[in-house]
Design brief:
Blueprint: E1 4-5, E2 30-37, E3 41-49, H1 61-64, E4 67-69, E5 72-76, E6 82-85, H2 87-100, H3 108-121, E7 133-142, E8 154-164, E9 175-179, H4 197-212, E10 217-221, E11 229-232, E12 236-241, E13 244-248, H5 258-269, E14 274-277, H6 281-289, E15 293-300, E16 304-313, E17 316-319, H7 327-340, E18 351-353
Parallel strand pairs: 1-3, 9-10, 9-16, 13-14
Antiparallel strand pairs: 2-3, 2-8, 4-7, 5-6, 5-7, 6-18, 7-8, 10-11, 12-13, 12-15, 15-16, 16-17
Helix pairs in contact: 2-3
The structure holds pyridoxal-5'-phosphate (PLP).
Pyridoxal-5'-phosphate is lined by residues 71, 195, 231, 234-236, 255, 257-260, 299-301.
């Protein structure tokens, strides 16, 4: 399918390059839109001026939350080139989410083509200050004006773009994480592996609680025994225990992060043994007691690597290592961001050039 392009005649002013961009407030000049109708399939892929959309108040997404989203970035290299990072993985994951959510699948080549075309049209919006990027948000919403509970017969697939600032304004710095023992995020058989708004709604109450206590994110435990480590708010979690890299296995309730997958590959290439397995809080308590819990870090598109300096579980607060960034965390951050921003070779073939 050919993507039609209708460019704006009134481009907006770009954000002031001397001010921090923050995250998720500013949107570019254009957006990608494609419609779906039962019997017709996906049709009319197009790029339009960024604008509000009109939906019936009865649109199904407002009532039962049938929606899927993705998160990825475009990076500007020193020579002005623009890159994506493993976009085909986002396309594939979008369809895994779609499948679980009864949303019709999207041709994965078209998904990647749509991202590339939109980023190309708005390439002037890819910021160039250090560690800034253009955040890319593809999403699908159910649009049928119908209050019955059933999969919608019509959908919109859209992509919007938002220039975003350096995640670490003053360099890579460790965060405090709250191990949540009251609320749960997802259970096996649920939709924890899908990127969908409902999972985030489920996380808000615990996040508010953790924030009020001065912790930046929540670490979820499994929904059944509340014993096994799952993942952080919007990040997967890794531990370095006695020289080994350990992360929870993908069990259906955890989001399969693309950064997680990349970190596993990089760790293996660095000669680390990597274990994807069940990890109980007790395992961590033991490791911490024995002085073997060497590093803890989260992984996700936003922060890439987020070192954890402090973990709170019930009445205990542990300082990880010396509370500073671990050696492996720092190495992974540099290796992956150098590939993303085109500062190094790309031995894994992860970089995709837009222009
Ligand atoms: C998006 C997301 C991640 C990280 O995935 P990446 O592909 O690495 O960005 C982890 N956990 C949750 C719940 C997420 O939504």
């Amino acid at each position: 399918m050919e993507i039609k392009i209708n460019k704006t005649t009134a481009p907006k002013a770009k954000p002031d390059a001397s001010k921090p961009l923050g995250f998720g407030h500013i949107f570019t000049d254009h957006m990608f839109v494609m419609n779906y109708e039962e019997g017709k399939g996906w049709f009319n892929p197009r790029i339009e001026p960024f604008n509000d959309i009109t939906l019936s108040p009865a649109a199904m997404v407002f009532h039962y939350g049938q929606e899927m989203f993705e998160g990825m970035k475009a990076y500007r290299g020193d020579d002005g080139s623009i890159y994506l990072f493993r976009p085909e993985m986002n396309a594939k994951r979008a369809n895994n989410s779609n499948d679980r959510l009864c949303i019709p699948k999207i041709d994965e080549d078209l998904f990647v083509e749509a991202v590339k075309t939109l980023v190309d049209v708005d390439s002037d919006w890819v910021p160039s200050q250090p560690d800034t990027s253009l955040y890319i948000r593809p999403f699908v919403i159910a649009t049928d004006p119908f209050l019955g509970v059933a999969p919608s017969k019509t959908y919109l697939f859209m992509i919007i773009l938002s220039p975003s600032g350096a995640y670490y304004a003053s360099g890579l710095s460790p965060v405090g994480i709250w191990i949540e023992d009251e609320y749960v995020r997802a259970v096996r058989g649920g939709m924890g592996f899908a990127k969908t708004g409902g999972n985030y709604t489920a996380s808000l109450a615990a996040q508010v609680k953790a924030h009020n206590d001065g912790y930046s994110q929540v670490l979820w435990l499994d929904g059944v025994e509340r014993k096994y480590i799952e993942e952080v708010g919007a990040m997967n979690i890794f531990f370095k225990i006695d020289g080994k890299v350990v992360t929870p296995m993908l069990n259906g309730s955890i989001l399969p992060g693309i950064t997680r997958n990349s970190v596993i590959e990089v760790c293996k290439s660095l000669g680390y043994e990597v274990e994807e397995r069940k990890i109980s809080v007790d395992d961590l308590v033991q490791a911490q007691k024995n002085g073997k819990l060497e590093e803890v870090f989260g992984t996700g598109t936003a922060a890439v690597i987020s070192p954890v300096g402090k973990l709170r579980y019930k009445d205990d607060v542990w300082t990880i290592g010396d509370g500073n960034i671990g050696e492996l965390s720092a190495k992974l951050y540099k290796t992956i961001t150098d590939i993303q921003w085109g500062r190094s070779e790309d031995p894994f073939g992860w970089r995709v050039k837009v222009k």
